[in-house]
Amino acid sequence: MLISVVIATINRKDELRETLLAYQRQTHLRVELVIIDNGSRDGTREMMASEFPDVFYEWLPYNMGTHAINIGFERSRGDIVWLSNNDSYPEDTTAFERVVEIFTRFPHVHILGTEDIEMNDGGRVYHWHPFDVDKTAVPADGFVTNNFHGTGAAVRREVLDTIGGFWDTFIYEEMDLCTRAIAAGFSVRYFPDIRTLHFGSPRERVQVERRILAAKNIMRYTWRYFPLFRALGRSVVYWVVYSLISLRHLNEPAAVLEIQFGMAMEMCRAWRKERRVIPSEKLRDVTLGKGVVMPIVRYLVTAVGRSLRRGRLS
Question: How far apart are the first and last CA of the chain?
C-alpha cells in the first residue's frame, strides 16, 4: 500500500524540516509526502526547493486553514492517507509497516488513531480517547473509538472518497470527520502502542479567539448531528461550561457576550441549514454511550493540571 503523508504548514520551516526527515526514515518503502503551504513567508519555499526537491509541495498565496488539508487529500495518491502536523511524526521508524499490516489484516478498520505524546510538555500523553484502557494489552484490531488526534492518524482512501474531507473552518474537524465516517458505516480504532511525537508550537495562541471559535463550533456540531432532545441536553452543558470558562479566563468582557451570542446563532444556523441527524442505529457508535459531562470534567482536570505544572516550571 502507498501511504500519503499530508501536511498543511505555515511559517514553521525548521520544524517542517525535522518532520520531513523523520518521515523519510520510515522503513516502509512506499511513502509519498504531500506538503500544502498556507502562504509561508519564512523561507519554507526556498528550503523545500533546495532540500526536498522530490517532495510534492504546493504554496498557496494566503492562509486557507483546514482547506489546505483537503487540497492535500486531492493531490495525494495513496491507498492510505496519513494525517500529520508540521511538527509531529511517529516515534518508531517501523510505524508505517505496522499501519499497513493492520489495514491488510483487518478490512473492518477504516480509520486508525495513535497515541499523542506532547514533547514540549514533558512528554505528557494527550488523552483524547474517551475511555481508560489497558495499553499493555491492545487488541490486534485496536480499541473501538469515535475520534482521533490529528497529529498522527491513518485513513483509508475509500473513507475520503465516500464522505469527503474535513469540514472547512471547523475547529473540531477530526470529530466531525469521524462522525460522518461512522454514520456512513466505517469504523475508527485507537492504537496507543503506535506513538506519535508532537513538538507543539511554543508560540502562544490567541486564546480569546480560539475559545470563541470552540464554543460556537461545538454548538454547531451538536445541532447539526444530534436529535432534538439530545441536542438540547448537550447544549445546556456546553452553555454552562463555556460561560464559566469565559468568565474565568477572558479579560475582555465583550468576548463573553460574543460567546453567548455566537453559540445561540450557531444553534439557529445549524438547525435551519445544516441538519444531518445521525441515524438512531449509529448514535451509540458516535457517542460510545457516553454523555458530555465526564469528558468535559476530564478535560478541565487535565487543563488545570497542565496550568499548575507550567506555574511550577516558571
Answer: 47
Nearest to 83 by CA among 156, 26, 15: 156
Name the 3-class secondary structure at 47: helix
pLDDT at position 204: 46
Q: Which residues span the domain enclosing 299?
A: 207-313
pLDDT (mean) for 265-274 = 92
Let me know whether 152 and 79 are in one domain: yes
State the helix-helix crossing angle for 228-249 and 207-225, rounded to 10 degrees. Answer: 170
> What are the φ/ψ torsions at residue 184 (nearest 5 degrees)?
-85, 0
CA atoms within 13 A on the CB side of 94: 4
Per-residue pLDDT, averaged over 223-244, amounts to 89
| Shared domain check, 294 and 185 | no
Quickly tell me which residue has 503523508 as its cell.
Answer: 5
Q: Using one digit for the tens of pLDDT, what is the confidence trace for 144-160?
A: 999 999 999 999 999 99
DSSP string, 233-292: HHHHHHHHHHHHHHHHH---HHHHHHHHHHHHHHHHHHHHH---PPPHHHHHHHHTT--S
Evaluate the CA torsion angle 242, 245, 248, 254 in order and state its sign: negative
Which cell is 46 given? 526556498
171 and 73 in one domain?
yes
pLDDT at 11 over 90: yes
Torsion angles phi and psi, residue 5, rounded to 5: -90, 115
pLDDT of residue 94: 98
CATH of the domain at 13: 3.90.550.10
Backbone phi and psi for residue 6, each to the nearest 5 degrees, phi listed first: -110, 125
The arithmetic mean of pLDDT across residues 292-298, rounded, is 60
How far apart CA 287 and CA 290 sit, in angstroms, is 6
Same domain? 58 vs 193: yes
Is 0.85 surpassed by the pTM of this model?
yes
Give the least confident one: 71-75, 178-182, 293-297.
Answer: 293-297
